[in-house]
DNA sequence: AAATATTTTCAATAATTACTGAAAATTCGA
DNA sequence: TCGAATTTTCAGTAATTATTGAAAATATTT
């Protein structure tokens, strides 16, 4: 298989995968492109390689920067902005875990706390089932939160060696 | 807060959360409704409670069954089908991990194996960066795969006690 | 400060995804 | 086996989400 073909396939699949994770296809494709590009790219490079408009590139790159997955790069003597992505997949994963925890898990747990204050007769089957569900999620969330925190703070070698032994 | 209100909020938030995870809003809402319902519900119950059409309920319930998150229940003497959802959130999480691993991680790893066979001059910077990315993902994926396998095979008490100590 | 290059915004539009509802298929009881 | 109840399918439509492209804003050079 030729490199150009392989790149194309990687970008396309990474994009499709993104849609299964609540990430828009193009954003995932831009990320994929930057991950396999040795040097930083400009908006025009991305436009050309993915065949998308300037506005689209701008928007998605900005989102990727918000996620902490892409950085602006200043190249001295150049007027244009360049963009580059973190290439260490472990760091990428940690960053995504960190962001999703902040954006999703934390607010969800806050809501569960509120919902567990629901009032009514504890003997009521409806209420009991509801509270059991909420409390189950709270407990699970607290543990997941903890686990993810440790994961995010750990380094790659820990993940690649120790973690496995512990799990086995 | 009243129960009916709390339920409504839970269903709505669980649905919104679904969209961040590549799951359609309605499917997540149906799941939420079944999780907090003490008794199995019929298609008509779900239609009434979520204000959606019969076809929509049918489709989403079928998907939830495919995901292993909802079961058909036969109630003797009743002609209609009833549906119920697993209420133990740890089992729900394990099931989702299992399915996503099968549907997403496994195929992705298969693709990486293919892409790592790309041919060309190993000195080429473009090729080198590409291969580094692919191999990084392969290595990461193999470990994640392993970790998730152990998680899925472990039981709740392990998660709630041992896992934390190990991680700390 | 004017000219030029570059980035950002956002209303209009396109593309995608989800939903409805009625017809077809299936199931089940009599 | 027939008829009624129930489930499933799916073409048409609605709702949502993503993209374009050109105008406005910003930054840089001369």
Shape of chain A: elongated
- Largest contact between chains: A-B, 60 and 60 residues
Q: What is the strand content of chain A?
A: under 5%
Count the E strands of chain A: 2
Question: What's the helical proportion of residues of chain A?
Answer: 55-70%
Structural class of chain A: mainly alpha
Radius of gyration of chain A, in Å, reads 21 Å
Q: Termini separation of chain A (Å)?
A: 37 Å
Oligomer: homodimer
String of helices and strands of chain A: HHHHEEHHH
Average predicted confidence as pLDDT of chain A: 93
SS field, number of helical segments of chain A: 7
Major sheet of chain A: order of its strands? 1-2
Molecular structure report:
The structure is a homodimer of 168-residue chains. By secondary structure, chain A is mostly helical. Helix content of chain A is 70%, strand content 5%. The first copy, chain A, is built from 7 helices and 2 strands. Chain A has a two-stranded antiparallel ribbon with strand order 1-2. In chain A, strand 1 (70-73) and strand 2 (82-85) form a beta hairpin. The two termini of chain A are 37 Å apart. The mean pLDDT of chain A is 93. Chains A and B meet through helix 1, helix 5, helix 6 and helix 7 of A and helix 1, helix 5, helix 6 and helix 7 of B. The first copy, chain A, binds a DNA duplex (30 and 30 nucleotides) through residues 24-26, 43, 52-56, 58-59, 62, 79-81.
């Amino acid at each position: 298989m030729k490199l150009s073909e392989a790149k194309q396939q990687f970008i396309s699949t990474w994009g499709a995968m993104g849609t299964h994770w609540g990430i828009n296809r193009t954003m995932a494709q831009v990320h994929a492109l930057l991950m396999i590009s040795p040097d930083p790219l400009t908006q025009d490079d991305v436009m050309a390689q993915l065949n998308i408009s300037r506005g689209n590139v701008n928007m998605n790159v900005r989102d990727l920067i918000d996620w902490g997955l892409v950085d602006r790069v200043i190249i001295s003597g150049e007027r244009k902005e360049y963009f580059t992505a973190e290439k260490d997949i472990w760091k990428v994963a940690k960053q995504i875990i960190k962001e999703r925890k902040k954006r999703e898990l934390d607010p969800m747990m806050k809501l569960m706390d509120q919902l567990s204050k629901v009032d009514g007769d504890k003997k009521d089957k409806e209420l009991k089932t509801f509270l059991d569900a909420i409390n189950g999620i709270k407990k699970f969330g607290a543990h997941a939160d903890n686990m993810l925190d440790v994961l995010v703070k750990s380094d790659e070698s820990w993940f690649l060696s120790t973690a496995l032994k512990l799990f086995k």
